[in-house]
Every structure is written in structure tokens, then in C-alpha cells.
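Module 6 notes. Inverse folding takes a fixed backbone as the condition and produces residue identities as the prediction. Think of it as a translation problem where the source language is geometry and the target language is the twenty amino acids. Below is one complete input and output pair. Work through it position by position during the lab.
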């Protein structure tokens, strides 16, 4: 049985927030880079749905708790939902691109 795919930043969530100075886009970018690194290194890709679930879980853990100063609090839940959807969609597109490349590698 293979290990479950997860996206865990190498620092505590609070330290990650301090490191990014509360910038949710920067944290999302770090998570995206981590997903890219893990998928490129994988000999066998995990199931796409498992990767998307891990992306959503990581977003909920690291990004959603951050306050977005330019978004009024009343609109922040809707903004977070749209940002979460965009993040998961980006990770899904990354997965598809890497999966295609692993099936038919580009000749060097």
C-alpha cells in the first residue's frame, strides 16, 4: 500500500503565516510548488482525486485561516471559496500536465 499524498509545509501553520506576512497568495504558491515537486518526483502518480483532496485540505489548513485585508469580512467566505476553487483547479491542471508527460515523455 502506498503512502497517502499530503501537502504539508515544512513549518507550523503559524510560522508559515508569519513567513508570508499573512499573504494567502504566497502561502498558496508555496503549496503549489510543493505539489509540483512531489508530483514530479513520484515514480507512480497517486490518484488524481487523492491529490485534489490533499490540495483542498492544505488550502483549508494553511490559506483559509488568513485574513485578506482588502476583502471586507462579510465577503471573505465567498472570496475564500473562489480562491480555494482556483487553487484546486490549478493543482488539477498541474497533475494532468505531469501525468501526460510521464506517459509520453518529451524527447530531450
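Target side of the pair, the amino acids:
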Amino acid at each position: 500500500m502506498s503512502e497517502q499524498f499530503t501537502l504539508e509545509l515544512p513549518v507550523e501553520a503559524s510560522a508559515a503565516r508569519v513567513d508570508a506576512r499573512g499573504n494567502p497568495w504566497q502561502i498558496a504558491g508555496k503549496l503549489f510548488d510543493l505539489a509540483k515537486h512531489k508530483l514530479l518526483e513520484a515514480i507512480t502518480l497517486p490518484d488524481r482525486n487523492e491529490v485534489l483532496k490533499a490540495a483542498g485540505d492544505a488550502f483549508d489548513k494553511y490559506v483559509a485561516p488568513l485574513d485578506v485585508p482588502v476583502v471586507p469580512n462579510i465577503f471573505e467566505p465567498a472570496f475564500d471559496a473562489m480562491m480555494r476553487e482556483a487553487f484546486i483547479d490549478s493543482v488539477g491542471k498541474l497533475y494532468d500536465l505531469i501525468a501526460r508527460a510521464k506517459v509520453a515523455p518529451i524527447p530531450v
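Reference fact for the lab report: The radius of gyration is 15 Å.
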